[in-house]
Write a structure and sequence with these properties.
The complex is a heterodimer of chains A (515) and B (438).
Chain A (H helix, E strand, L loop, with lengths): L17 H4 L1 H34 L29 H34 L4 H15 L3 H14 L26 E3 L2 E4 L1 E4 L3 H29 L6 H22 L4 E5 L7 H7 L5 E6 L4 H12 L3 E6 L3 H9 L5 E4 L12 E3 L10 E4 L2 E2 L4 E2 L2 E3 L1 H28 L2 H9 L4 H31 L11 H13 L2 H30 L5
Parallel strand pairs in A: 5-6, 5-7
Antiparallel strand pairs in A: 1-2, 2-12, 3-9, 4-7, 4-8, 10-11
Chain B lengths: L2 H6 L19 H9 L4 H26 L8 H11 L10 H12 L8 H18 L7 H17 L1 E2 L1 H24 L1 H30 L3 E2 L9 H28 L3 H16 L2 H10 L1 H4 L8 H27 L2 H9 L4 H31 L11 H10 L8 H33 L1
Antiparallel strand pairs in B: 1-2
Helix pairs in contact in B: 5-10, 5-17, 6-7, 8-9, 10-11, 10-14, 10-16, 11-14, 12-14, 14-16, 15-16, 16-18
Classes of the chains: A alpha+beta (515), B mainly alpha (438).
Pfam family, one (chain A): BPD_transp_1
Subcellular location (chain A): Cell inner membrane; Cell membrane
Organism (chain A): Wenxinia marina DSM 24838
């Protein structure tokens, strides 16, 4: 063995005390101990769970997701009825959560940006008002806002029957915006779009004009780089956005044909009023229509204006309609335009005043029926209360983020840009915003995340989100608390990990490259 | 001096003019209005819109508020009084509901003759907090801070005074063991002993001793059950205990997240992200529905306690993130200087890093607390009666069915006062810290 110097490491074999006192081994010791404790803790939790489940006679099984749900959901974005599975109900709930989160994020951003910018305004009174808004909403629990807005929506709004016009010509309440929107204690009724035969063409034209806007902007930017001339982008974009679509809509509306209404009963060459008369005073018009089409909508409008009581029989298509009419299930059949009247079987006569088949887009306007509004889209008060409260509350936080982001950009930046001769709006767009956005966007996205998590307060107003379906009724009905809560938690966790993943990618892209 | 001007000057002023007032447009209130309200067309329109909005709100709220009826026993009686004195179309608030039910909204079902106890506990809390917030106060007050959790527990829940005393004694025993064992057996053994001995003491001695002492010298207050706590009292109890208990856990998690040890780091990150990724309401339902599954069969305990545990775990994840920010904000030199002094990890954290990091984090911690305090309203969904729970109950009662503005305004204003003043305090701290760091 060679002579050892004092700088050589200590070579006498390994001693146990090195595990604690030697930094080379200590971290391993600590981690091994931590691992043992961790495994022991998990083992304790899991063995407790297994024991408890055994005592209750339960097992751990996700099979309940396939079982029949048996409960109704009052707002669904995809088809659902109570004969479908718990899994399907959970998806309906997830979509409802995402819907209110999506709507809330948009309105909260709009509100927040406006309030944040106005709070910095030189206008004293506006700045103070915005400060009151921000402080007021930030310092009161969200739940209180949700409950308050819901209480106002249900207790201070008129009932549907108040909209009925009384004999003296007055009514307790009236609809808004040209009799198209009704705010009632059962929800807000708004016109629902119904897509007609030309809707696809309209959509294609609209998408094409979006592409054209994009192309034009790129061309304008390239030209500016090349020649220094600035082309007007805003007005041209605006025109491209609206004009082609509206033109196509008008043309299609102009050429749209009449549908063929076949009446079973009466005589040839009659109009709807004569047909209704032939049915007698107690007669009832049953119309076979394909639901969800503009033809059905316009037929219903005709029937509503007519003298006779009516009902609509949903059918799957023209052949089905004729077959049902011959079976006596309906006495009025709506056929799409272009149907040759000669193909209509005996006993049916085409009406002379058949309504039009409809524009590419028609609006189904809510109309007061017996006890409630019919037609249109019912936006429930629960959704509105949740949406409004989430937007106002999160908007107040976003306002502070926007204000902070703009304040974070030093005055020198805007002064330098003015010195370069840029006008104020260009200064904002080219100098301030790109820098402020770097500060604004990360906390903004985490506010979106907060909003999504806060949407679970839907429970306060009975909005059917994922907590209400999967984490509420499904758990109550199946008794699968463990599995249900696990799935619910994983849904929220996956969502927030996804959003923070996106955030990290963004942060890495806009990070200042420092050397 | 150049000659050019000397040649062209034809008139030289010999006496100065007296200074003139600025033009009327450029001074006083007129100038302020011109600059702040009507500096441009857009601003003028905004000003008019804002004034209209304020007038609209005030013209509706002011009569409603000033006509408020404070003395009635039900909403219908309120309306009768209004019809009799002001006419049926007048707007009048029915604050009688608050006069009737303020005890519930503030204290829940706490015995009425004992209201001084929670109030005193709150005062005790502020006294305990003072030496932490204001370094100028005598250091001896920190002893009261250490004792305050037991004092507050005793005041609010009551019962025999010996229970809290003997539990507190456990901590003293642990500290004594550490103090006397550390020089003899080394820090690690002493630490383990200082943890194990008090646990053994609590498990075998404390309960028995407290019963015995209670039998010999019965001192105590009337016992109040957890289910009788409610209203703002409950919100404050959950919020305060959540934030206080979560501090140590949050600091440990933050250290864990900064740690180089792979396993510790990953476990901390996993815990923090899981807690933060799931809404509090799901955690509360977890506490209500499935916490029992994870505990030994037959364990049952109070829902209020379960909620406090869940809220503590929840806020510890948020505190951890705030403290991590504070740790990351410290210059690297501080860590290196602590290492250079030869301090071990815990000493360097305790003496150098944490005092500075926590000081920077206080505003963030206060903000977390504001969020937590607002979030305590969620306990209504698992059946606890916080202010919103009571407001639901009051609105469902036959006397007050149909009332909402008055109740929500009352609750909202109380929350606003709490949260706004804390927010101001955190802003003040931020400014003060910014000054000190300059």
């Amino acid at each position: 063995m060679a002579t050892t110097t004092s700088t050589d490491p200590h070579r006498s074999g390994f001693r146990l005390s090195q595990l604690i006192y030697d930094t080379r081994y200590r971290s391993i010791t600590i981690q091994v101990i931590a691992l043992i404790l961790l495994v022991a803790a998990f083992w304790w939790l899991i063995s407790n769970t297994v024991q408890n489940l055994a005592l209750l006679g339960k097992d751990f099984d996700f099979g309940f997701l396939g079982a029949r749900a048996g409960y109704d959901i009052n707002q669904m974005l995809i088809e659902y009825d109570n004969s479908m599975s718990h899994g399907r109900a959970a998806i309906v709930g997830i979509l409802n959560t995402l819907l209110v989160a999506f709507l809330g994020c948009i309105t909260a951003t709009v509100l927040g940006v406006i309030a944040g910018v106005l709070r910095l305004s030189k206008n004293w009174i506006v700045a103070r008002l915005m400060a009151v808004y921000v402080e007021g909403f930030r310092n009161v629990p969200l739940l209180l806002w949700i409950v308050l807005i819901f209480a106002v929506m249900t207790e201070a709004t008129p009932q549907p029957r108040d909209f009925r016009v009384l004999d003296d010509g007055t009514s307790g309440a009236s609809m808004l915006l040209g009799d198209t929107i009704a705010i009632t204690n059962r929800g807000v009724f708004i016109p629902a779009p119904v897509w007609g035969s030309g809707a696809l063409a309209l959509l294609i034209v609209f998408l094409a004009s979006l592409v054209a806007i994009f192309g034009y902007r790129r061309w304008a930017a390239a030209r500016q780089e090349r020649t220094g001339q600035i082309a007007p982008t805003f007005t041209v974009s605006l025109a491209l956005f609206f004009v082609p679509t509206i033109l196509v809509f008008l043309v299609m509306a102009f050429v749209s044909d009449r549908q063929t209404l076949i009446a079973y009963g009466g005589a040839a060459d009659q109009d709807f009023a004569t047909f209704a008369e032939t049915l007698g005073p107690d007669g009832r018009v049953s119309a076979c229509v394909v639901p969800g089409t503009t033809e059905a909508l316009l037929t219903r409008r005709l029937l509503r204006g007519g003298p006779a009581a009516f009902d609509l029989v949903p059918v799957s298509g023209p052949e089905d309609a004729i077959a049902r009419a011959e079976a006596g299930e309906c006495n009025l059949v709506s056929l799409p335009p272009g149907t040759d009247p000669a193909t209509v079987p005996a006993g049916g006569f085409a009406l002379t005043d058949s309504p039009r088949a409809g524009n590419p887009v028609e609006f189904d306007v809510p109309v007061l029926g017996g006890f409630n509004f019919e037609g249109g889209l019912q936006v429930r008060n629960s959704l509105i209360a949740l949406w409004l409260a989430l937007s106002l509350y999160t908007g107040a936080f976003i306002a502070e983020i926007v204000r902070g982001g703009i304040l974070a950009i030093s005055r020198g930046q805007s002064e330098a840009s003015f010195a370069l001769g840029l006008r104020p709006n260009r200064t904002m767009r080219l100098v301030i915003l790109p820098q402020a956005l770097r500060v604004i966007i990360p906390p903004l996205i985490s506010q979106y995340l907060n909003l999504t998590k806060n949407s679970s307060l839907a429970i306060a107003v009975g909005y059917m989100d994922v907590r209400a379906t999967l984490g509420g009724i499904t758990i109550n009905q199946t008794g699968r608390e463990l599995e249900g809560m696990l799935l619910l938690g994983s849904f929220y966790l996956a969502l927030s990990l996804l959003i923070s993943g996106v955030l990290n990618v963004y942060n890495n892209r806009v990070k200042l490259r420092e050397r | 001096m150049s000659d050019t001007h000397a040649q062209t000057v034809r008139f030289v002023r010999e006496s100065m003019l007296p200074p003139a007032e600025p033009p009327t447009k450029e001074r006083g209130a007129v100038k302020w209005v011109r600059e702040n309200l009507v500096s441009s067309w857009l601003n003028a329109i905004l000003t008019i819109l804002s004034i209209y909005f304020i007038w609209y709100v005030v013209s509706h709220v002011a009569p409603w508020f000033l006509n408020g009826i404070w003395d009635a026993s039900s909403l219908s009686e309120c309306r009768e009084i209004r019809d009799a004195t002001l006419g049926p179309d007048a707007e009048a608030a029915c604050f009688a509901v608050i006069a009737d039910r303020w005890q519930q909204l503030l204290f829940g079902f706490y015995p009425q003759d004992q209201y001084w106890r929670p109030v005193l506990a709150l005062v005790a809390f502020f006294v305990a907090l003072a030496p932490v917030l204001f370094p100028g106060l005598p250091k001896r007050m920190l002893w009261f801070t250490a004792a305050s959790p037991f004092v507050m527990f005793f005041l609010i829940w009551g019962g025999s005074i010996w229970g809290p005393i003997f539990i507190a004694l456990g901590f003293v025993i642990g500290w004594l063991v550490w103090r006397f064992l550390a020089p003899v057996a080394g820090p690690i053994l002493a630490l383990i002993a200082a943890i194990i001995v008090p646990i053994l003491y609590w498990y075998f001695v404390a309960g028995l001793a407290a019963t015995e002492a209670g039998g010999l010298i019965p001192i105590g207050l009337e016992r109040v059950e957890s289910r009788d706590l409610g209203g703002f009292l409950l919100s404050i109890i959950i919020g305060l205990s959540g934030i206080i208990l979560s501090m140590p856990l949050g600091i440990l998690l933050a250290l864990g997240r900064q740690s180089d040890l792979f396993l510790i780091n990953k476990v901390s990150v996993g815990f923090i992200e899981t807690i933060r990724g799931v809404p509090l309401i799901v955690w509360l339902f977890t506490a209500q529905l499935i916490l029992g599954y994870f505990l030994p069969p037959g364990t049952t305990f109070d829902i209020t306690l379960r909620v406090i545990i869940m809220v503590t775990l929840f806020s510890s994840a948020y505190i951890a993130e705030v403290v991590r920010g504070g740790l990351a904000a410290l210059p690297k030199g501080q860590y290196e200087a602590a290492d250079a002094l030869g301090l071990d990890y815990w000493k360097s954290m305790r003496l150098i890093i944490l005092p500075q990091a926590l000081k920077i984090s206080i505003p963030g911690i206060v903000n977390t607390f504001i969020g937590l305090f607002k979030d305590t309203t969620l306990v209504v969904f698992i059946g606890l009666l916080d202010p919103i729970g009571f407001s639901n109950a009051i609105r469902a009662s036959t006397d007050w069915n149909g009332i909402y503005w008055e109740l929500f305004v009352f609750i909202g204003v109380l929350f606003f006062i709490f949260c706004y003043s804390m927010g101001r305090y955190s802003l003040y701290l931020e400014k003060k810290l910014a000054r000190e760091h300059r």
